[in-house]
Structure formats: structure tokens, C-alpha cells
Amino acid sequence: MSLKTPSAAPDVAAGPPGDAGRPRSTYRRLPHIPHGGLLLVLVLVAVFTAVQADAFTSSQNLLNVLRQVSVTAVIAAGLTLLMTAGGMDFSMGSNAAVTLCVAAQLLARGWSTPAVVVVSLVLATLIGLVNGLVVTYTRVAPFVATLASAMLLDGVALLVLDGMSVTIGDKMSALGNDEVAGVPYLTIVALLVLALTGVTMRFTTFGRDAFAMGGNEHVARLSGIDVNGRKLALYALAGVLAGLAGLMLLSRLGAAAPNTAGLQTQLTAVAAVVIGGTSLAGGHGTVTGTVIGVVLLGVVGNALNLLQVNSNYQLVVTGGVLLVAAIVNEFQRKSSPGH
Amino acid sequence: MTSSPTVPDTEKGTAVSPRRTAPAHPAPQALVRVRGVTKSFGGAAALKGVDLDLYPGEIHALMGMNGAGKSTFVHVLSGVHQPDSGTLTLGGHEHTGLTVRRARRLGISSVPQRRELAPGLTVAENVLLGDLPTRYGTVHWKAVREQAGRALSGLGIDIDPDRIAGTLTVAEQTMVEVAREVRRGGRVLILDEPTACLSARDADRVRDLVRTLRDEGVAVVYISHYIDEVMSLADRITVLRDGALVRSAPAAELDAAALVRGMVGRDVVSRRPARPAPRSESGLAVRSLSQGRALRDFSVDVRKGEIVAVLGPAGDGQSRLFDLLSGRQRPDSGEIRVDGRPVPPGRIDASLAGGLRCVTGDRRTLGLVQGLTVDENLMLAGDRFARRRLHRVRHLARRAAPVRDTYGVVALTGNPPVGTLSGGNQQKVLLGKWLETAPVACFLEDPTNGVDVAAMADIHTLVDDLAARGVAVLLASSSPEEVMRLADRVVVVSAGRTVAEHDIDAITRDQLVTTALGGQPQ
Ligand SMILES: Nc1ncnc2c1ncn2[C@@H]1O[C@H](COP(=O)(O)OP(=O)(O)OP(=O)(O)O)[C@@H](O)[C@H]1O
Ligand SMILES: [Mg+2]
């Protein structure tokens, strides 16, 4: 049995797009390059900095930028998936801070590195899971619940350190400072995480469930998706990635000091994800966009340092970049068919 | 619409330009003059040079199949979309495009195909949205309630202005939107399928309202798929097909058969076929289901291969059935059995595992993920049942293709987000999504909501086939025609109670309508 409505056949689709599809202004072309506007901003910033400060293109500096953005990238990757599913986690940076402090203390007490890695990742996962439980089984908005846990965890991190700095000697320093074929280990870890996230979002049912949940949770539930289970998994995943970011940061710094990572780091990651075009309301997000967002923020931060801009202006500029990027994204979304 | 119009073969849908048709109206001055409007999305044309004249005091019906471009056209008119080319002349000025604000200022108001009330606000706030009366710089709530109450009662709409918009039924939402637009006092009122899922009674009220407005001199653009409705209401009818104007003529010069032919390009036949007799075993049994005041002590037994209709005004008990049967909500009491096995109440997974498939009448909020593609929406449930772990676009497209084909889903471009499809095509996607997942029993809520004549016939055939495959089908409907066409038995509900039950052979359509209305407690 085949039921077709003959006259409704979209013969137009095959026809020459010629006259009808002519764009009226150039900005209508932008949507055809994904993240075109954003890439343009990134290139402009990079070129401007390279011209203004020679140090920008030195390999030392570039490696430094790569190491810096790698940590943010790991957090941002988890956040992209979570936000696509309509969730939000403000506590990942603070989770990273707690992990970092606990790991430092344990290492300082002579635990073996593998044991510390396992313990801290488990701890981070549990923290994420608790967030997930609160968000899923109470009706508290993720925004509120995770903001609360961010503050709470920032406090816990301070308690763990007890106001002191804890150094870990040269344990884990290879991860933080070495490189293979000119690429820092940290960056390789970050790229792996990003790639896995990207593949998950595109090619697995788990990832597509995230899109469905973010797009319309009711429909997702009614279609037989275990929405609660998925949410728990996603928050736990955000937790474990936060833990990983904490360990990466520890390996780079070689010490845990008060107020490392925390809410400020998280806000940078959130900004990067939003710049990358992931929807705050859920249902839409790409890892590519997040990568561009992370790199853009990293490069801007670095440029401000190199150009010796007064540190008071740095936040102002970063905020400005966030705003401009968000506006560019919105333009592209509006002018593309099917919003 | 379930009749089978036969058209003499000589009748060809020749394009008659409205410019050459002398307006049969006493006021020859067109209020709005649209010329050669084209609009394409991503290179595919949705409108190809459409001309239209709107006269004051005239109801101008716009007809065409799903995806013909009706909504796109009125979007151009109301400034939502800017045309790629073409002009709109109104108030003596020629415009190449309008913005929503501009259109509003020029007196064009519109009630879109999908209802767009702010769900968190009260009815009163929604009616006065953007124009809240203030006193001393703050909102004057008493006046808000009074003015909204007046706007509603002036149109004979009986809705408490203090209710939250999110709790309104679709019928009530339509009324509130009409009231809002009427209150703003436009010269042109656009109604995009205002009666798409209203009961005969509510639809009558909307139509009366439209006539009143027409008599006051408003130019009404009225989109509808109901041919009888259009024939009885419209003064002038314009038929679109594939984005092009097929015919525009005074209603008196057209008949139902010519209209169908103009829209579809062929005759449409939808007759009750001979279906195999229902089997003896029960497919879906509902025992004394109750929830609050919405549904009281509702029982029905659907045998395998049988179609039982629940007829009631839109928003009555039958709409609550979706929530209860799908497991979204837990009934206060009652029992559901599928295939003889009890289904634990209030659990979506249990309901699905039992083989019960519920197709919502509210496809926007409960049916489809608007941002996902057509293929993904089609396979959303099926792939989850099959416990697929991997998602590959190519494979997905291959699995979705036959479903698209069977259900006649048409998109301008390959595989766009489902939200960009025309309303009727979205409805087909929704049906395809659920009916291809090996159901034991199906609950269908207004399955032909917003679909064109041809698609309606197609969907009726699909439901027939579903029953013929031995699926127990419970059909919630607000249309007596549809019930007569599809059902073996009909249960009439009113105010949450069952008021009558009939075999379809033992009742005529008119008797059915009378029962449905007679059951209304006054
Ligand atoms: N924003 C959009 N992006 C891409 N395609 C679109 C968009 N809006 C409409 N279309 C396409 O344009 C065509 C015309 O759609 P339109 O909504 O005007 O149909 P319609 O006549 O109102 O149909 P229905 O009776 O089903 O509501 C459809 O094929 C639809 O898929
Ligand atoms: Mg439409």
C-alpha cells in the first residue's frame, strides 16, 4: 500500500534554484559556512595580535595557549553535551577545584599516582551524580541547583587545602608539561575528549537522545527514552570530565593553591560553549562550535596579556567578545532556513 | 469531506487572475493588493508569483493541500516573512515587504496556525498583551480583567479571564487569540486554520464570530481544509497548489468538486471500506478510569481489529485520555488492559512495553521535536524500541524512506527540521512515527487535525489498514464525519462522562450530532 498525494510532489526541489534563491544581501551567505562568522572573528583577533605582538606566534607562547585552553576544553566538551540535552552545570569548575585539592593532598601524603587518579575521578563522578539526582528528582532548575553546588564545592576546596598551598613535586608533571611531536599531552587529552564527545553527539543514540531531550523533554519521554537515566548519566559524565580537568590543571601547575579553578573557570567554559552556538535552552549544539569558542577565548586572553592591557580591562574585553559572538550567532540562526 | 466528489473531466483548474475577474462586491476598492509574491526557503520555492486582492467586508478563503504555501503566504502578508519579490499595496502605498510591527500598524492582524499564547500568563493578560492598561505607571489589574472580560464576552466567548493560558484547551486558545486580534481592531484579520481541531459547536461559534467581523467591514483571510465550511462561509475563494495560484473566484462560482480538483489535481475518494470483522479477543480494555473532574468512570472495550471512537467536544474527557493511556499522568482510579494484560498506571515505559501507542492531538508540545529532522522524528520511537546504539544518518534515511512514502510526507528540501514542514505534513510524520512501531492497541487523538482533503483520505485508509492488521484502535475525535467514516462503535462523552454508546450502523450522522450536543449539560 502506498499512499501518495501526486500533486504535492516537490518538483520544485529539483528545479534550478536560479532566480528564486538569489540572496539579497551578503550576510545571507554566511549560514552556509557553519560557524563562519565566529571563525572570522577568531582569525581577525589572531591576525591583529600577531601583527601587534611578535611574541604571539612564538612556539613557546602557542604551546602555552594550547595548554591553557586544553583544560577549559575538557570542561566545555562535557558542558556542550549536557546543555544540548537541556541541562546546565555551573559546578564543573568547582568540582575540578575539589578534585585538584583532594588529589594534591593525597599525592602529598605519598599515595601512588594511579590510585590518586582513580580516587579523584570517582569522587568527581559522584559529585556530578549528586547534581544529577537533585536536578532530576527535585524540580529545582539546573541553573539554581548547580550554582548552589558550585559555591558549596568552592568552599569545600578551601577546606581541603586549609588555607595552604600543597605542592606535588614532579609527580604527574609529564602530563602537564611534556609534549609529543610538538603537541602537549594536555592538548592530546583534550582533543580525545572533544573527539569522543563529537562522535557521541553525532553517531550514537545516547547523543541523539540528548538532542531530543533538549528539544522537547515531553516528546523524548513519550518516545520511550529513559529521560531520567539519561540525565543522571549526563551529569555524571560532566562530573568525571570536571575531575579530569582538575587533574590536568594540577599536573600543569604542580601545586594546589586556594582559588585555583572554581566558578570563574566554569564561567569561561560556559561562555565558550555559548559562543560556539550551543543553545542555552537545549536541543542544539556542536562540538566544533565549542572548540572555536574555547580557542577564541584563550586567544583573546593571551592577546590581552601580550599586549599588556591593564588586567582590569581583561574582563571587560572578554565580556565584550562573548556579547559580539552571541550576537553573530543569533544573526546566523535567524537568517538560516528553519531557524 | 468524506463524500466522494465527482468532477466532470472537462473542468480544468484554469488559472484566473484576480485582476481580470471583476470583483462581485459592491466596494470595488481593494484594501490589500498583492502582486507576484515569491518566497523560497533554502533554494526551494514555497510561493511562485501569487496575486491576491482583499476587499473589505469579504471573507476570502485560502485553500490548498498541505505545503501548498497558504501559511507562507499569510506570513508574507503579516510581515513574518519578507517576500523575495513581489509587492503588497495597501493604504495607497506599495510595499516590497513588511515587518510584523509594520503590518500591525497597517491594520493587519493574524492568528497563526500554531497557537502562540504566553502559557504562564492569565487569559486577561494574553488578550491585552502589549497593551496593558496602566494607572500611575503601573499595570491597572482591575482594568485588565474588565477590558479582557469585555473583549471576550463581546464575542460571546465564555472563558474566565483569570485562568492561566497554559490550562486552556486548543479550542479556548483559538478563541482567546481571536479575541486578542479583534480587540486590536485590524482592518484585515488572518485566521490560519482556526477550526482545525474544534468541535462542531466551537467551530460554529468561531464562524459566527468571523461573519460578525465581516459584516463590520473587516477583510478576513480564512484558511481551512474543510470544504463544507469554506463553501458556507467564504465570499471568495483562492486555491493554491505547489505555491502557485490555481484559481481565484467568488464562492458562488465554485462547487466542492471543483475545489477539490483545483487543490489536489484529481478526485479524492474516501469511503468506508469493508473491513474484516473485529476479532473476539479484547485489544484494549479500559475500566472505570477516573481523573478529577475531567474524566469520570470511563470504560470502553476495544476488540482487536475494531475502531471505537470517543466523540466529545475538543478539550473534554477524550483529551485527558491521552495523558492517562500514555502514562504521562496517573489516573485516580481505574484499570487499563492491553491484550488482556494489565498495564501499570502512570508509567510511560510500561504503557509502551505493553504495546499501547498513543498519538497526541497536540503535536507541537507532545508529538514532535521541532528542531530535529524529519527522518529522526519519524524513527525516534522505533529506534528506541529496537534498542539501537548507533545513529547513522544514511541508515536512518534508508529506514525512514518507506515510512515517508507510505505516509506521503512531503518536504521542500531533503530532510529539514520537522518544524519547517507544513502543519499537515507534520501530522503525517507524527502518525508515521507511531503507527510503524508494531502496536497492539492504538489511541489516536484527532489524527487528521490540520491535514488536507487528500491526506485525510490517506490517513483514513491508514487507520483502516491498522485495524485490518488486527490492532485495537481507540479514536478520540471531535468530528462526527470522521467518526462515521472510521468507527465501528462510538462512545459519546460530555463533561467527562459517557452519555451514550452506539454501533455505527445503528445511527445516522445527524443522530450522532444530536446525541453529542444533547449530552451537553447546560
Ligand atoms: N521556515 C521554513 N523553512 C523551510 N521551509 C519552509 C519554511 N516554512 C515553510 N516551508 C516550506 O514551505 C512549504 C509551504 O509551507 P506552508 O506552511 O505555507 O504550507 P501550508 O499551505 O500552510 O500547509 P498546511 O495546510 O499543511 O498548513 C512547505 O513545503 C514547507 O515545508
Ligand atoms: Mg499552514
UniProtKB/TrEMBL annotation, chain A:
Keyword Membrane part of the UniProt annotation:
yes
Q: Where this protein primarily resides, as one coarse class?
A: membrane
Q: Give the Gene Ontology MF terms in alphabetical order.
A: transmembrane transporter activity
Tell me yes or no: is Mitochondrion among this UniProt entry's keywords: no
Q: Residue ranges of region Disordered?
A: 1-27
Q: Where are the transmembrane segments?
A: 33-53, 65-84, 115-134, 140-161, 182-203, 232-255, 267-300, 312-331
Name assigned to this protein: ABC transporter permease
What is the protein's species of origin? Streptomyces tagetis
